[in-house]
Amino acid sequence: MSPTPSETSATSSAARRARQVVDALVYALAVAGVVFVVGALLGLAVGGGLVTAKYVMFVVGLLAFGYATFQMRPDPPWDTEQTDDGKVKVTRNDPSGTVLGGRDETKFQAAVQRIPPLPWYSLPPDERFPVPFKMFLASLATLAWSFVMETVFGVAA
Fold first, then answer.
1. Which terminus of the chain, N or C, has fewer Cβ atoms within 10 Å?
2. Quick check: 150 and 54 in contact, CB under 8 A?
3. Dihedral through CA 45, CA 107, CA 68, CA 15, nearest 10?
């Protein structure tokens, strides 16, 4: 007995969602890795070693957390316009559901797409999770990496 179209659609939807999750996790770990390398190089340059890397990871993770949270805000359901007589008029924004443009792929994202297993399970940029969401995950990964460096590996001031 062959699967029904709805079963096939559910399977392909689950597979696509799994690829989106893998893409987001690899992106988050790649960002955290880049922050660690930059922090370690900075630590070597100023003589702070891994302690400097830990602090750099904490600060960058915290800033990325705030930035990503700010970027994930939904659009307000209203808009304001200034009328000719100086009054402010509030109008309702009605979502039309139209897509204005596809997502562009940055050079960093293109480099991340070459990290295994993404070359084997790649998604077009329009099907990936939005960059603010992936940056939010990257901030959590960076903060977690900083935390593990201090608590597990004993990198402390």
1. N
2. yes
3. -120
Residue 126 lies in a domain: yes
- Looking at the 3D structure of the chain, how many domains does it have? 1
Residue-level length of the chain: 157
Residue 44 lies in a domain: yes
CA dist 96 and 150 (Å) reads: 49
Domain that holds residue 125: 11-72+106-151
Beta partners for 79? 91
Decide if pLDDT at 47 tops 60: yes
* Distance set, CA 14 to CA 5, 70, 103 (Å): 14, 29, 22
**Assigned domain for 1 exists:** no
